[in-house]
Request: fold
Amino acid sequence: MDRFKRQRVKMVDSQIRSRGVADIRVLKAMEKIPRHLFIDEGLIDQAYNDNPLPIGERQTISQPYMVAVMTEALELQGSEKVLELGTGSGYQTAILAELAERVFSIERISLLASKARKVLESLGYFSVVIRVGDGTYGWSEEAPFDGIIVSAGSPDIPRPLVEQLAVGGRLVIPVGGRYSQTLYRVTRLSENVEDVKKEDLGGCRFVNLIGEHGWRE
Ligand code: SAH
Reply:
């Protein structure tokens, strides 16, 4: 086992499994994906630490535990079509690519999107489609989605995202203030867009979701 693999196994054990994430597919994906390749070389020794890290452009790669909690909440079985908002480093995107059939990801900052694309291609994730733009509009041409995951904090739940959720589909999103939010899972129960179940998954702290249905810059 190489040193990074050893660090990943330890990360999953001590930060993720021990805190209650039990979905075996999620745990396996996190043991597999080389998180250290999604950050700058200067931070490589911190790649498997229990915290977010800067990725440039004033953005961060999310804490591994948060990635695990959000991914588990999507309850992916392998056949799903998933939309991600906030590609960032592309790390969460790689986890989704392991667990779902098709992954669409939107990133506001083109530099981050192109860096993420490069790493994902180097790891063989050719089927992921990344687009640069304001993800709060969703991706209507590809809707409906079985899962939508938002890795930036929003003042409200962007309505287009609920509209683009398949019946039975799940949206995982941090909602609240600019500096702290609550993580919600929203499950669409019927064709009626108002007919949703909303579950509180706990407190969190994300960078801002900036866009038409998010925060103003
Ligand atoms: N999952 C990523 C998280 C990156 S931080 C990772 O672990 O690396 C959140 C990202 O959301 C940032 O890259 C930011 O630029 C992006 N973002 C913010 N508002 C957005 C919007 N409206 N549409 C798409 N991306 C957005």
